[in-house]
Structures are given as C-alpha cells and as structure tokens.
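Bumping my old thread because nobody answered last time. Still need a sequence for this structure:
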C-alpha cells in the first residue's frame, strides 16, 4: 500500500533488458499510476522516460480483442482448431521442418518455454527462432566459445564498484537509461572514468572522458591492440591464464592484426590501452554496435580475451557485461528459444543433452540439428520450404533486414498465424489468422534481465475482450495437435516449476543455468517471488561467475578465441558510397506499437530522419530539413535531413522505429542488407551501404 491507501503491485518494465522494477497502482477505470520500485535491485526506484510513461501506453487503441480468421472475427475454438488442423496437415504432408515459429523477447519465460517445448519436443523441428537473434545472438555465441556456456559473468553492482567503464557499441544513455543513471551516480561517488567506443558521437559521449570514433566494424582490431599492449606491458595474470586454453594462438593472431583499420590515431589508441591496462577495476559493457555485425561473435571474443588475459572477470567492479535490448532476451536464452539451443543452456547437438530433455518431456521426437535462424527462416518462407509460420509478438515485416523481401515472403506463405496485442502492424495485416494475446499489464510470469535477475511480471488489469496469455494459447494448440498430457498446464506457476526442475538436470550436466532451488515453489511462493539472480540451487543463490575460473568447457578451462579484423560484409563503392548505421531513439521502442501511444514520448523525435555530416550534405546539395532519398540495393526510404558532425563523413545514421503504419516511406530495415555473422547468424544492422540524394517530389 502507498499513502493513498490503494494497493500497489510489483511488476517489471516491459521495455529494455535493464529489467527495472515498477510499482503499479490501478485506478479501477483501466488506468494506473506507475513508479519505480525502490526495492528492485536493477533500478532502486529509478525509471527512464519510457518506463515513466508506461501508464500512457495501456489504452485499448488498436487492441486485437477477438480471434480473426481470414479477416473475420470468430471464437477461440474455431480459430485454434483451424490453426491446429493447418499445422498438423502441413507437417503430415511436408514434414516437421515445413513449419516454423518466430517469437520474441517480449514473451515471458513461461510462454517461451511452452513454445520451445512444443516445437522441439513434439512437432519435432528446431525451427523456432526469435527477434532476439537481431539483438544479442553474437554475445551468446561469444560466451559459449569462451566459457562453454552462455554465461554472463558480472552484475549491475559491478558498475557501482568499477573505476573504468568502457562502453562499446552502446548508447547506454538512450538505450539502457537507468543503467546509465546508475553509472553517472557511481561516477559522482567515486570518479569512475568512462570511455565510449562508437563510430557515432551519441548522447552517451556527453559524459565520457574519452570517445573513440572508430571505423565501423573495426572493434576486433582495437581490442587485439589492447591484448598486445597488455602482453607487452606485463599486465597478464599468469595464475588466471592457467585456467584457460589458447592464449598463444590468440596473442599471435592479435599481433598480426593492424589497428590502423580503426582510423584512430596511434596516440588515441595508446591512451585507451594504457588506461585500460593501468585500471584494475574495469567493466566493458557492449551492446548492439558489437552484436549487430557480420563479425559480431569475433568482436565479443576480442573483448572477452582481454578480460580473461588479465583475470579481470567475475570480481567486484571487473568484467565484460553484455546488455540486452529486450526485457526477456535473457529468459529466451535460458529456455532455449533460439534455433540452435535446448532448454536450460543444454546443447541441441549433444546426444546426452538431447536424450535428457526428451526423456524429461516424454517427447516423441527431438531434432538433432539446429533449425533455421531468423534470416534463414524468412528465406525459407520466401522460397516455400516453410509453409506454415506462427509469428508471436514481433513485427518482422518491418524489423527484419531486407524487410521488403520479408514482407513479400510472409504475404506469399501458405499459412501465417500472428498472435499479438494489436492488429495494427505491418505483419499482422498479412496474417491468415490473428490471435489476441494479453498485454504487459495483463500477464503473469517471469522475465530475466541482463544481469541474470529473474523478476515477476504481474497482472493488474483484466484481459480485454477475448485476449488470452501466450502460454495458454500455445498449450491449447499443443493439446489440439494431440499432445494432451504434455501441455496440460493450469498456470504459469506450474510451467515455471517444470522448467526449474529441468534446470536441475542441466545442473547435473555441469551447466551454469540451474534454478532447481525454485522447483518446489508453491503457487503462493511464485505469486510473491522477489527478484532473484540465478543460479538458485540448494547450495547457491546468485553472485558472479568465474572469479576463480571454473568454466563450463569439459576441461573446466576458458578458451581464448583467436580473432582477426574483418571488414563489414557490404562494401561501399561509387554506386552506394555511404555506410548506414541504424539504431534506437531515447523515447521509442521497437516498431512503436506501444510507445507511439504516448504523446509525451512521441514529442521527443516526432518524425523519421537521417543524420549526415556537413561535408556530405554540401557535396550532395542537401540542406537542413530537406527530404533525402536513401537508396540501398534492397529498398528505398525518404527521410528528413539532420546535418550534424556527430556522424563521420561517409557515414549516416537513421533510427529504426517507423513502420508502414506510421511512416510508409521510412521503413529503415528495408534498406538493411541481410548479411549475417557466420557463427551467430545475427544480421549486420549497422553497416549497410546506401546512396543519398535530395528528394524532389514528382
Ligand atoms: Fe524500462 Fe529499460 Fe527504462 Fe528501466 S531503463 S524503465 S527497463 S525502458
């Protein structure tokens, strides 16, 4: 209760991976007050502009309130039977790999678990992938290569204790604002130094001691130079290195790389390397500028190599920290909601792991090879290999690279189901069947944030119309496809207990992800669950990993991964001379299906734009506020010019939020090439090539 006497409910913000706790007080008329939860370890009462405006985004405008088949409202029974029949028929005629699920980091962990179980254990395909593939798949791949599992070593508390925080490809001030507030508070208290490594001068640079505006995609060369500096400067931790393998090859490869490709002066590079080397308590935060790259996994490992070489990992104030874009990107990783993973950090390609999960689920089948990752999945939709597709809480017709081709692929798919809170997305308009799902403030379940903290989301508003929770929709489909017993769930608490029990089996295989300590929670305990960082076992709750080694490769040692600079996959040239960087704005979220409902948020940046350097604007005859035609090999957009030296000559930046619904000529991901990292499958969203010209209306 707060001072007004009305009950408040603890929940979690549904936007970014910081995972802030919120206190919600409904007004009984469909609205509510929102404030930051002072007891949540991620935010200690802080909220950013998006979190503060949550109450403005819960209205029923554009809500999907009833199932729709072929454009007509119908009841759940008819809609779900139709979906079950079409999926079953497609599988019977073309095999399990002829269907796919494309899901989202917006799903709660319990929803994600059921979707993954249905596809991998019962349909018998690994064709389930997620929009988190666009967000942090390279970090997952980098962690697995170095540590043996997808383990985040550090915690947010490390930011409070660090003396140097290096932000690589991360506009923390806008994309993870509460973490940024936390960093600024630490800086005030202890003088934390901040270095930003980013081709663009972002809002985060305003408080940086150093900004290294390196050439796009050259992070590996910079961190290789750091590794050689640490070696030559005698800064290696010989004791810690004994808990690792592969240093000799990694350092040899690092010496063969050439830091001049960064475009940074030798003095700047040396100043950065010296500062890193001479500061013991260093945290390296990285985000989409690292992950969204055709060399994203190598960038991650170049960073991890430096922390492993110095033993600066898993100790207070030290370590690498990947920050995720979505509220439950981490939960999706934990339940194996990616095409190449099994639940609870078990490996799809490991026969013992497969057998254990199959036995636990009593599943009729289990694929033994990875399914199609996001980009390949939509290619398979386009060429007819996937004939039935279910898209959940995401808008790939706008947000996938080469979005025009993805939109055409979905339009041409034999059978497409979309479950979402709204029918007003570019993707929902293409669906044969629309299923109304409950929204953030109407759902019960859990999410995991970027520092492994599991928090509850709780419902404070009734489900509108016929909307249902995602876990219930998925479980009902499973039952209607003939898997009654496996999907006979009564509540998210029941799903969570099953998942926590399975994690104990993963623990027996020596995996990191183990929450078996929560497997016997009663419904009441689940209802009252307070934020808790995994692992949670009988022996341990939370903390950091790897301070004393103890990695998850078979020999218990970490791996150095030798990595060399690779240029972005798309090459500039006379036809497409500019490199396009895409990103997020402070006050918008994904394709704006929620944040656009808040006038306050929309006022921050009311229209789509492109940032270009004054020299380039002059050369192209473009004046401030002119409309600019942006042409890539894959699409075209018309955007307002913002002329600024925050981007370097030859580079342009455009935000990715606007859609065919909000600004038909500004679908940025229509311009982006579907080039992917060979290890992670993550698309390179920040280094496509484009041509610019002043737009003249016909
Ligand atoms: Fe929500 Fe992220 Fe803002 Fe926290 S920082 S309030 S999780 S959007």
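Sorry it took so long. Here it is:
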């Amino acid at each position: 209760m707060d001072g007004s006497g009305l009950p408040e409910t603890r929940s979690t913000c549904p936007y970014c991976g910081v995972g802030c706790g919120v206190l919600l007080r409904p007004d009984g008329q469909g609205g509510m007050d929102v404030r930051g939860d002072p007891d949540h370890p991620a935010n200690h009462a802080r909220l950013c502009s998006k979190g503060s405006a949550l109450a403005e985004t819960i209205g029923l405008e554009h809500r999907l309130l009833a199932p729709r088949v072929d454009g007509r409202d119908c009841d759940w029974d008819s809609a779900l039977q139709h979906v079950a029949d079409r999926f079953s028929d497609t599988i019977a005629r073309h095999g399990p790999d002829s269907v796919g699920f494309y899901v989202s980091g917006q799903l709660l962990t319990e929803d994600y678990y059921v979707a993954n179980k249905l596809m991998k254990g019962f349909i018998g395909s690994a064709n389930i992938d997620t929009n988190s593939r666009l967000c942090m798949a390279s970090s997952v791949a980098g962690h697995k290569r170095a540590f043996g599992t997808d383990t985040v070593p550090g915690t947010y508390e490390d930011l409070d204790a660090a003396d140097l925080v290096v932000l690589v490809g991360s506009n923390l001030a806008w994309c993870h604002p509460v973490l940024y507030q936390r960093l600024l508070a630490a800086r005030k208290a202890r003088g934390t130094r901040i270095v930003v490594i980013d081709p663009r001068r972002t809002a985060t640079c305003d408080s940086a001691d150093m900004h290294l505006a390196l050439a796009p995609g050259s992070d590996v060369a910079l961190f290789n130079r750091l590794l050689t500096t640490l070696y030559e400067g005698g800064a290696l931790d010989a004791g810690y290195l004994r808990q690792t393998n592969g240093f000799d090859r990694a350092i040899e490869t690092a010496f063969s790389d050439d830091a001049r490709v960064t475009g940074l002066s030798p003095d700047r590079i040396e100043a950065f390397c010296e500062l890193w080397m001479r500061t013991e308590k260093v945290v390296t935060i990285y985000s989409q500028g690292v992950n969204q790259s055709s060399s994203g996994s190598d960038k991650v490992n170049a960073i991890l190599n430096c922390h492993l070489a110095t033993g600066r990992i898993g100790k207070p104030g030290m370590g690498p920290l990947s920050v995720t874009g979505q509220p439950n990107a981490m939960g999706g990783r934990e339940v194996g909601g990616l095409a190449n993973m099994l639940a609870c950090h078990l490996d799809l390609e490991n026969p013992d792991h497969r057998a254990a999960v199959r036995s636990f689920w009593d599943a009729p089948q289990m694929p033994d090879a990875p399914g199609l990752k996001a980009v390949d999945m939509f290619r398979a939709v386009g060429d007819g290999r996937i004939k039935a597709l279910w898209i959940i809480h995401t808008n790939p017709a706008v947000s996938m690279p080469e979005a025009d081709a993805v939109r055409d692929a979905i339009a041409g798919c034999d059978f497409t189901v979309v479950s979402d809170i709204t029918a007003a997305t570019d993707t929902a308009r293409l669906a044969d069947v629309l299923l109304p799902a409950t929204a953030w403030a109407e759902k019960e379940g859990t999410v995991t944030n970027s520092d492994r903290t599991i928090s509850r989301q709780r419902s404070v508003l009734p489900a509108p119309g016929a909307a249902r929770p995602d876990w219930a929709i998925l479980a009902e489909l499973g039952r209607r496809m003939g898997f009654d017993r496996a999907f006979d769930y009564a509540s998210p608490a029941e799903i969570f207990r099953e998942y926590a029990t399975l994690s104990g089996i993963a623990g027996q295989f020596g995996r990191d992800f183990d929450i078996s300590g929560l497997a016997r929670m009663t419904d009441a305990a689940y209802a009252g669950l307070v934020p808790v960082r995994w692992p949670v076992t009988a022996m341990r709750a939370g903390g950091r990993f790897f301070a004393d080694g103890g990695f998850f490769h078979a020999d218990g040692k970490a791996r150095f991964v030798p990595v060399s600079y690779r240029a972005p996959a798309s090459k500039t040239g006379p036809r497409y001379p500019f490199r396009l960087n895409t990103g997020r704005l402070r006050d918008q979220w994904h394709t704006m299906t929620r944040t656009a409902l808040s006038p306050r948020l929309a006022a921050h940046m009311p229209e789509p734009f492109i940032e270009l350097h004054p020299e380039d604007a002059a050369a192209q005859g473009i004046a401030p506020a002119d409309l600019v035609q942006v042409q890539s090999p894959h699409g075209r957009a018309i955007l307002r010019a913002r002329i600024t030296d925050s981007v370097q000559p030859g580079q342009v930046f455009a935000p990715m939020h606007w859609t065919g619904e909000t600004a038909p000529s500004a679908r940025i991901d229509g311009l982006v090439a579907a080039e992917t990292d060979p290890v992670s499958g993550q698309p390179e969203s920040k280094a496509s090539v484009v041509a610019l010209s002043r737009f003249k209306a016909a």
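The mean pLDDT is 95. Let me know if any region looks off to you.
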